[in-house]
Amino acid sequence: MKHTHLPFIDYPANNKILTRELLEKEYPAFVRHIEKVFDAGQSHIFRWWSELTPSEKKNLLDQIATIDFCLIKKLFNSAVLRPAQTSQENLTPPHVIAFQKNDAEKEMAQRVKLIGESSLQKGEVAILTVAGGDGTRMGISVPKGTFSITPITQKSIFQLHAEKIIAGQKRYNIRIPWYIMTSKNNDAATQNFFKERQFFGLNPQQVFFFTQDMFPVVDLQGNVMMDLKSNIIMSPNGHGGVLVALKEKGVLNDMKRRGIKNIFYHQVDNVLIKIADPVFVGYHLRDEAEISLKVVKKCHAEEKVGIVVYINGNLHMIEYSELSRKDMYAKNEDGALKYHAGNIAVHMININFLEKVYQEGESLPYHAAIKKVPYLGEDGSVIDPKQNNAIKFESFIFDILRYVKKSVIMEVPREDEFSPVKNMEGENSPATSRQDMINQFGRWLRNIGVSIPTDSQGNVIGTIEISPGFALDEEELKTKVDKQLQFNGTLFF
Ligand code: UTP
C-alpha cells in the first residue's frame, strides 16, 4: 500500500486538481479539520473526493472532525520506534491471596464472604461488562456476547451472564445494575439482541448500555485506512476506553446516584466468570482496596497471558509480548515460575478511586496491535489481505494499575473461573469453553458423590449443562441433587 502525501490530489481522469485551498473554500466550516489532515500527511483520504455525492462528502468531513490526526502521527512514530520487549529493572512478584486450600484459608474466605454479601445486599455493587471489542479473531459479524455457547441449550454468552445476575439477585434480594460497554460497531446489534429476548428476564430498567470512543486504523506506513470512498476505518479504542466513557457518558454519576460504591468489572468473553463473587468483593472491601484483581497461575513460561508484577514498588501488568525472556523464564528456588500471576481481567474497582484518577488528570497510554484488516485499495476496490496489514491503537484498563496504592490480588483456580472465547477454533474457542463448562459441572457433581466418567485428558465423557437459575455453584447444587443420581451421558438442569 503506497500513498503519496501531496499538497493536492490529482484526478487525471476528470482533469481536476483538488487542493487544500479548494476544499477549504468549498467547506469553510471545516477549514481547521482539512488543514490538520494535510498537515498530518493524510491527504489521501480525499483521493475519491470527486466521486462522492454531497452527502458522502459531508459524512467524510464530519468523521474527519472527530479525529485527532496529530495523535495518530505521534502514536505511530512511538509504536514504530518502541522496542517490542522491555527488560524491566526492579521487578518483583506481587503478594497474592492463594485460593483456599487449608481449613484456616477456607474459614477466612467464609468470613470475608459475609462482608461481600452484606455490601451486595445493600446494593453497593454494580456489574460492568466490557463488550465493545470487534472480536476480530472470531471472524463473526455479530457481537461476541450474542454467540451461542452453553453445551446443551445453546444459550448466548449474554444470556449466561444475565442468568447469573438473576440468580445473584435472588440470593441478595436486590436488583443489581448491569452496565454494558459497547462500541459504535456493535451497539445497535447488542441492544437489539437484548430487546428481542426481553432482556433474558432482567428488568430493562436495570441494564444500561454506553459506547466507548473509536480510533482510526492505520496501515503499516501510518496512513489512515478506508473501507469506503467516504469512510475512514475506525475501531474501538481498547477496553481502557471504559475509563473515559464511564466519565463522559455520565455512567459514573448514574452509579453514584444509585449508591454504588464499587464496580465488578469483567470481559464479555469469559464464560466461567463468577459474577460479583462475594469472596472477592469481601477481600476488596476488607482491605479497602482501590482496585482488586483475580489472577490464575501461568501454565508455562510462554503462555500468552499478561502478568501482574511490581515495578519499583508500583503495581503493573506486563503484556506477554512485552516481557523479556529472562523474566519470562525466571524461577523461584522451588523451581516454580517467579512471575506467575496471570491476569484474567476480573476486577473490583472503587468509585472514589476512579474519581481521584480523573481529578488528577491521569490518562491511559495507547498500545499498538498489528491486525489483518480489509481495506480499499488504490483502485477503489476492497482488498482482503492475507497478512497483517494494519495497526489498531488501543488503551488497556490494566494500565490504571500504576496509580493504585491499595490492592488485593486473589489467585483463583483457572478451571473454575477463566475460559475466554477468543478464536473460532483451537485454544480459547467455543469448543474449549463448552468443554470447560462441562468439566466444571462434572466436578461439582463428582464432589457431591455422583459418578461422572472422564477420559485420559480429564474431560467429562458426555454433556452436562447446569443453568445458573438451578444452581450458581457447587454449594447450591448440593442442596438440590442427590448423590444417587445416575449420569447416562447427557444431563441438563
Ligand atoms: P480482546 O482484547 O480479546 O478483543 O478483548 P476482542 O475484541 O474481544 O477480540 P479481538 O482481539 O478483536 O479478536 C477483551 C475484552 O475487552 C473488550 C472485549 O469486548 C472483550 O470483552 N474490549 C476490547 C472492549 O470492550 N473494547 C475494546 O476496544 C476492546
From TrEMBL:
Pfam families: UDPGP. InterPro entries: Nucleotide-diphossugar_trans, UDP-sugar_pyrophosphorylase, UDPGP_fam. Keywords: Nucleotidyltransferase, Transferase. Coiled coil: none annotated. The keyword Cell wall biogenesis/degradation does not apply. Belongs to the UDPGP type 1 family. This is UDP-N-acetylhexosamine pyrophosphorylase. It comes from Candidatus Brocadia fulgida. The lineage of its organism: Bacteria, Pseudomonadati, Planctomycetota, Candidatus Brocadiia, Candidatus Brocadiales.
